[in-house]
Design goal:
Layout (H helix, E strand, L loop, with lengths): L1 E2 L1 H9 L16 H13 L5 H10 L1 H4 L12 H10 L2 H16 L5 E8 L12 E7 L4 E7 L6 H10 L7 E4 L6 H9 L3 E6 L4 H13 L7 E9 L2 E11 L14 E11 L2 E2 L3 E7 L5 H24 L13 H17 L10 H10 L1 H8 L9 H6 L3 H4 L4 E2 L1
Parallel strand pairs: 2-5, 5-6
Antiparallel strand pairs: 1-12, 2-3, 3-4, 6-11, 7-8, 8-9, 9-10, 9-11
Helix pairs in contact: 1-6, 2-3, 2-11, 5-11, 6-11, 7-8, 12-13
Length: 398
């Protein structure tokens, strides 16, 4: 028996509690609702209304894999479940699934925040989510909601605590340049690359001074590169120096490198002002390695935030009540991961068109989800998964 990505996802979802009270006489199976929602979002549906309508239109197709004893749930039922669903449990299941399908990671882990703008209205603030992003694979490893009247400084440690970061280079913007966060990363066996700005004035002044006072005989390791892209040119110079004697190791544990990245953009005839950014790292980085890590972190904006806004319509969502914004944000990241982990697709196209192809072609949707319509599970698999109810979601290839 081989477990697909979809199969392992459904196995993890079994540990999420149905938020409805059994005494209310529920008509629709909880896991079937989650499966339908994932298939619908994969098929280019961005709203609860879209999900419910897609489910009814594709009910015959869904019945190849689901029982759907009382048909597909209504829009009201989908919304009620996502409003009531425990986001902590949903997130924990997501993290278990990602850890299982991704395996041992290499490279960088970017941590960055994004506001779900459409979730704020009527005096309520929009929710802000901090995500952990595997920069080489392009998949999300976890998310943490920033508590009301708080900021990313409190959310980042909670997110990191739930992740296995041993051997990874964790990159965080200046908001996360905090002594306790640096210490937590090294305690968990990872390395940090933290942007340094005015929120750490003493550290910033020490790094600025060192690069200014650098003599020709002590020239820093430098890496220069030019990136032409979509009608613009980005020139970047990355420089690194040893941190010894400059950074207080009592405050910034195991700090080995201080760094400077200068960037200049040119769009047509317009040239931007020079952007200068400083960094510290617990890893001995060459200038070329620094440049690659910084580019990987900047890629979060295009490969995650921009995709969620433009391809998944996250900012346009008007779902605002209770846990629904947080749960729907995670639902879209599940689908994003499924698409990025689908290496069988030989057609090179945008993520937007991949979702449309999944909507148009049943075989594409089945492949990405890992569904098979080979009939009911075997007796052996029913014993392994305790009951037919626990493995009937047909994501098991037997």
């Amino acid at each position: 028996m081989t477990l697909t990505r979809g199969a392992s996802l459904m196995c993890c979802f079994r540990e999420v509690d149905d938020p409805r009270k059994p005494s209310n006489g529920t008509l629709h199976d909880f896991l079937e609702i989650l499966v339908t929602a994932i298939a619908a979002v994969l098929s280019d549906c961005d709203t609860i209304e879209d999900i419910a309508h897609w489910g009814r239109e594709k009910e015959d197709w869904l019945r190849q894999f689901l029982v759907l004893k009382n048909g597909v749930a209504s829009e009201e039922t989908f919304l009620r479940i996502f409003r009531a669903l425990d986001p902590k449990q949903f997130e924990a299941a997501f993290r278990r699934w990602v850890a299982g399908v991704v395996g041992t990671l290499k490279g960088g882990l970017g941590v960055d925040g994004k506001t779900v703008r459409g979730s704020g209205s009527g005096g309520e603030s929009a929710i802000h989510m901090v995500s952990a992003f595997a920069t080489e694979l392009g998949v999300v490893l976890g998310q943490e909601k920033v508590a009301s009247k708080s900021n990313e400084i409190t959310a980042i440690p909670e997110l990191l605590k739930a992740l296995y970061i041993h051997g990874l280079l964790v990159t965080i913007d200046a908001m996360g340049c905090q002594k306790n966060i640096a210490r937590q990363i090294t305690d968990q066996g990872g390395d940090y690359l933290l942007a340094v700005k005015g929120n750490q004035p003493t550290l910033l002044d020490a790094i600025e001074t060192e690069f200014i006072d650098q003599s020709p005989s002590e020239e820093a390791d430098r890496h220069r590169q030019v990136h032409p892209s979509h009608g613009r040119i980005v020139a970047q110079v990355a420089s690194v120096l040893p941190a010894e004697g400059i950074v207080d190791l009592a405050d910034w544990p195991q700090c080995k490198t201080i760094a400077l990245v200068d960037s200049l953009r040119k769009v047509g005839e317009h040239e931007s002002k020079l952007e200068r950014r400083y960094y510290i790292s617990s890893r001995e980085l060459t200038a070329e390695q620094l440049a690659a890590a910084v580019r990987g972190h900047w890629g979060i904006e295009n490969r995650l935030h921009w995709v969620l806004d433009v391809s998944f319509g996250e900012d346009a969502s008007t779902v605002r009540k209770d846990n629904a914004p947080q749960n729907l944000s995670l639902l879209k990241k599940i689908v994003l991961n499924l698409i990025r982990l689908d290496t069988a697709d030989k057609i090179r196209t945008s993520l937007r068109l991949k979702r449309k192809r999944a909507a148009w072609k049943d075989d594409v949707r089945m492949r990405i989800l890992g569904f098979t319509s080979q009939g009911h599970p075997s007796a052996e698999s029913m014993m392994k998964y305790s009951s037919y109810e626990s493995c009937r979601y047909a994501t098991l290839i037997i």
